[in-house]
Amino acid sequence: MSALKLVKMERPRSEEIFRRATEVLVGGVNSPVRAFRAVGGDPIVVDRAAGARLWDADGNEYIDYVCSWGALILGHAHPKVVEAIATQARRGTSYGMPTELEIELAARLRTALPSCEKVRFVSSGTEATMSAVRLARAATGRDFIIKFEGCYHGHSDSFLSEAGSGLATLGIAACPGVPQALAALTLNAPYNDIAAVQKLFDRHRDKIAAVIVEPVAANMGVVPPIAGFLQNLRDLATRHGALLIFDEVISGFRVCYGGAQTVFGIAPDLTTLGKIIGGGLPVAAYGGRRDLMDRVAPLGPVYQAGTLSGNPLAMSAGIATLDLLAAPGFYESLDARAKRLGDGIAAVLRETGAPATAARVGSLLTLFFSGETVRDYAGAKKCDTRRFATFFRAMLDRGVFLAPSQFEALFVSSAHSDADIDRTISAFRESLASAMESS
Length: 439
Known about the structure:
Elements: H1 12-24, E1 46-50, E2 53-56, E3 61-64, H2 79-89, H3 100-112, E4 118-122, H4 125-140, E5 144-148, H5 166-170, H6 180-183, E6 186-189, H7 194-203, E7 208-213, H8 229-239, E8 243-248, H9 260-264, E9 270-273, E10 284-288, H10 290-293, H11 312-325, H12 330-352, E11 357-361, E12 364-368, H13 377-380, H14 385-397, E13 400-401, E14 410-411, H15 418-438
Parallel strand pairs: 3-13, 5-6, 5-7, 7-8, 8-9
Antiparallel strand pairs: 1-2, 2-3, 4-10, 9-10, 11-12, 12-14
Helix pairs in contact: 2-11, 3-11, 7-8, 12-15, 14-15
């Protein structure tokens, strides 16, 4: 592959917009990782997007592997999704009342994930996981939950200790403002360590309501489950009368049409979904066994509500997206694109002998600046984040936009072409060399 011509991108308008943003928005952003604190410099300010491309406020063009943090598996502004949103917008943007669209999307979810016998729509992944844990506590009459170090389940109080995603990026181990009495009810175990989970069950016998896990960890970088880990979690939870919650906000409809639970053949008691099921609009859901979900109001006493839950715009976008994903060969084609990129990255690492490793599960990828295979959060935290920051900036200057954190995933969409991937591999080779030289 030919070398890319490196042109230092100027972003004066983006910088000016961001300066204004810092006067009215906390840190100039509405979600912390967007501030680029972990990689240096000011963030790009997006003006528009289409397919696999972003353009910033200065007109610079980027191949986008953030894809709205995984929500846009079809790429930006897919015509059929845009058409569905526009058609619904002309009929009304929000009613605060039931629509047939909610039934249509829920039926698609239930068909794809048979463990979700009933579904409740919410507006964010945080709402979904928070509500699932509340339901688990109510159903079991227990208070403790087990989560895994480096897994991120949103920003509700129960999850803000040893979490991944933005907390890992900013180096926040535990969030101020979370009462110690509540924090004590969350038990952390290393991901992929079933012996540690067994010890927690032994130590807190008959007190653990649920185990919540990303079946494919994607918030400390991409870390796949080792053989038997998820099945052992299923067995332990059942044996001890606890519920198993799969957080598939990222993996749901990402690794296959039925999510990670389909890939690994594990039926959780409850599942949380988000991102892809809204086609780029704010929507999430939690679902599970009928007997559990029927405890939620108005059928039961477990209260949860939301003004925009089941929003018709989001339902329309989700239906259009899932219909496209259900087409024969969609995931095979997507996986082939991701494999092309993953194989290209692996080849560069072999050629250069750089102290880095790559991990891929389906269309999720991460480059870890570590010479060891990452199996848990402790391993992820050993990565050279300074070297990643240099690499990130070099990729950005070559027109490739990655997540601005060592601890996030790279998302391949169906809009990425072979030419995009070849260009990305060339940029990767040059940017890796820059990262090695700067250390």
